[in-house]
């Protein structure tokens, strides 16, 4: 622990340095390849939308001893009552089985309830049936998209006013989109169901990612402002020092945030099964991990790339290069 602390202190003082900004093309290539893989998952596999978005009938067999072959039993029961009907089966907790189908009429729902009761050796009063219309899911989707657009617009405005430059706002926005694509794509590749709780997790991830990026940018702004004042350091070097000074803090904050979520996921996967807790925790876990990566490897390097063509930054880099050359000439061999 003391060595890690010493390493963090060396990064903060500049005694050691990791060239995050200088190697930005490497990070861009890695992220571009990863984004292509992520987007291919969205195109090829698509999202497994929950019944709240697609509509349909849902049956829950509760207070039963869940056998190992509960999926095949439930599917066979649905097929016996409604031949050709596809069923999506999952386990909720330790004693509940959830079965989702297309929309069924009252008579058809009663037949499926009786078939499920027989298959799991229980009574029909332990088998509940409900119907969810797709209009509810469409309403939720519209509200979520509206909230996302409002969030991004307000983020751009607030960050531009706070940092007094649109380039930082643009870099932060790219990092946010980067994090969101990876988080959503994880659900496409794993085939996990996207529910309203998942949507809440997606929106929560944006807030965390923005917080981490703002912390890094605040230090970058402090260092670059000082560089413009004394003109002894290039813009890229000052920005890179800012990332080095906050990287340990970002890692520590992310690890502390991920540990309880990882514990929740472990309990969900081993004991509880699919449900609202899994939908929310998984989105948070993936989003926070990717958000920490983007705030270090994407946001600040992209900021430097955006500002590298500005006349003031070019003048600073030229003047700092002359100062450093003179200092190197005066230094004994």
Descriptive overview:
- There is one protein chain.
- This protein is α+β, with helices and mostly antiparallel strands and 333 residues long.
- The chain has helices at 2-13, 24-44, 51-54, 70-81, 106-119, 134-163, 166-190, 196-230, 235-272, 276-307, 311-330, and strands at 48-49, 56-62, 88-92, 96-101, 127-132, 193-194.
- A four-stranded antiparallel sheet has the order 3-4-2-5. Strands 1-6 form a two-stranded parallel ribbon.
- The two termini are 37 Å apart.
CATH superfamily of the largest domain: Multidrug efflux transporter AcrB transmembrane domain
Taken in chain order, the helices and strands follow as: HHEHEHEEHEHHEHHHH
- Under CATH at level 1, the class of the largest domain stands as Mainly Alpha
The CATH topology annotation of the largest domain reads as Multidrug efflux transporter AcrB transmembrane fold
**What is the domain tally?**
2
Count up the helices. Answer: 11
* Poorly predicted sequence stretches spanning 5 or more consecutive residues: none
């Amino acid at each position: 622990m003391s060595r890690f602390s010493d390493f963090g202190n060396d990064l903060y003082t500049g005694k050691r340095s990791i060239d995050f900004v200088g190697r930005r093309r490497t990070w861009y290539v890695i992220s571009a390849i990863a984004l292509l893989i992520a987007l291919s998952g969205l195109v090829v596999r698509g999202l497994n939308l929950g019944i709240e978005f697609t509509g349909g009938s849902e049956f829950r067999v509760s207070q039963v001893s869940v056998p190992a072959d509960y999926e095949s039993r439930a599917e066979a029961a649905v097929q016996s009552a409604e031949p050709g009907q596809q069923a999506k089966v999952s386990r909720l907790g330790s004693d509940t089985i959830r079965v989702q189908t297309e929309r069924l009429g009252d008579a058809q729902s009663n037949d499926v309830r009786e078939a499920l009761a027989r298959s799991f050796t229980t009574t029909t009063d332990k088998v509940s049936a409900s119907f969810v219309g797709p209009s509810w899911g469409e309403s939720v989707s519209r509200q979520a998209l509206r909230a996302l657009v409002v969030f991004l617009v307000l983020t751009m405005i607030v960050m531009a006013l706070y940092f007094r430059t649109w380039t930082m706002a643009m870099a932060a926005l790219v990092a946010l989109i980067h994090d969101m694509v990876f988080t959503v794509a994880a659900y496409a590749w794993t085939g996990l169901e996207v529910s309203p709780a998942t949507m809440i997790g997606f929106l929560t991830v944006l807030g965390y990612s923005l917080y981490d990026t703002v912390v890094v940018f605040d230090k970058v702004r402090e260092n670059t402002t000082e560089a413009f004042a004394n003109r002894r350091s290039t813009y890229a070097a000052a920005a890179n020092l800012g990332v080095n000074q906050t990287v340990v803090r970002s890692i520590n904050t992310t690890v502390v945030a991920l540990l309880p979520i990882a514990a929740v996921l472990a309990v969900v996967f081993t004991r509880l099964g699919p449900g609202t807790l899994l939908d929310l925790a998984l989105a948070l876990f993936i989003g926070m991990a990717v958000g920490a990566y983007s705030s270090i490897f994407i946001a600040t390097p992209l900021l430097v790339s955006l500002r590298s063509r500005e006349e003031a930054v070019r003048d600073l880099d030229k003047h700092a290069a002359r100062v450093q050359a003179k200092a190197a000439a005066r230094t004994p061999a």
